[in-house]
Amino acid sequence: MSARDSDWDGVxxxxxxxxxxxxxxxxxxxxxxxxxSGGKKVLLVEVEGRQGIAQVFDIPPLPYEERKIAVxxxxxxxxxxxxxxxxxxxxxxxMFYGIRRAGRALTKMGVVDFATTIAPGLRDVLVTGKTxxxxxRRGKNGRRVYDAxxxxxxxxxxxxxxxxxxQEVAGLARVGPIKNHADLVRxxxxxxxxxxxxxxxxxxxxxxxxLDGVAELREAGLPAGGIFxxxxxxxxxxPESLEAALAGRFDVGELxxxxxxxxxxxxxxxxxxxxxxLAAEVVEHAKRAALxxxxxxxxxxAEMPRYELPLLADGVDLAGLYELAEQITxxxxx
Length: 334
Known about the structure:
alpha/beta, Rossmann fold, single chain, 14 helices, 8 strands
């Protein structure tokens, strides 16, 4: 699928958020691979200091510099950057005040940590500022350095405060470089060039947190993107069997006879015991399928594009990331 077929044609900053444990970093990494396919250049950014990108790509911890970490399907490069607030502060001081050396002295004295602690909005401005600078950056030929930037952002509960930098620094600075810097960031994250995507599981708490996050995002005037439903289990039984199990019409005796006929039980008693155990598993599977159906319907109310990514039987490794990237591309998300 070509880039023109993507649901997000024209979007250059993809912000990925989600409740902890939903696989947010895995989805961000897979999306970066998908966006870079076919010869593109994509930057994957993390801002929480967890070195999650290094872990999913099985590479050494990332420094505060952009470096190539993967080749995308069909050619194309994925670069990565782990944004460190302290280094971002030093870069900011040099950019606007020309005092990087003095900034290092302030770092040794703990002033930088003190400043970002009493004004947490400043920390967010610094790390989002580095990301949006990469979105805007052009090379000597006048072309964009990166075709897209993927930001592995904080969890859903903090995403609006993290992105709504103009409001966060309003009480900190009404004029001057900090205010101008925040306005530049807002100009990118609130524009049609940005999409904030949510990662969820088909479970009640992640889905509710996703819906709450979408509502809060829209209220703040920030651009909602798509919903990535991660770790989806394959359907192993037809709908009529699931309905029968939920309604209590599942025939354990017939199942026992089938086990015996297939040579999977030593005798009637063994077949009956195995049949009852399997029947209990079928009922639990049916309950799970019904829950997932309800959660899908709840997510549909958000009226956003939805993409389903499979649960990887062998866990998430580099091959798994490429598999998920292919799924993302095939569903039109990249």
